[in-house]
């Protein structure tokens, strides 16, 4: 039982790190698209 709990805890930690990375990439992508849009005006 303890093994299952530690496994789910590490999975949630990995998920949290990946979601931060996805948010970071999405922000950079949005900023690049926004900059291209402003530059094309």
Account of the protein in words:
Helix content is 93%, strand content 0%. It is mostly helical and 41 residues long. The longest helix is centred in the middle third of the chain and has 38 residues, at 2-39. The chain crosses the membrane at residues 21-39. Keywords: Membrane, Transmembrane, Transmembrane helix.
Alpha-carbon distance between the termini?
60 Å
Measured on Cα atoms, how large is the radius of gyration?
18 Å
Helix content: over 70%
Number of strands: 0
Strand content: under 5%
Low-confidence stretches: none
Secondary-structure element order, as H and E? H
The average pLDDT value, as a whole number, equals 82
Number of helices: 1
Largest sheet: none
Structural class by secondary-structure content: mainly alpha
- From the spread of the alpha carbons, the general shape counts as rod-shaped
Kindly report the oligomeric state of this protein.
single chain
Keywords: Membrane, Transmembrane, Transmembrane helix
Topology summary:
Layout: H1 2-39
Index terms:
41 residues, mainly alpha, 1 helix, 93% helix, transmembrane, transmembrane helix, membrane
In a few lines, what is going on in this structure?
It contains 1 helix and no strands.
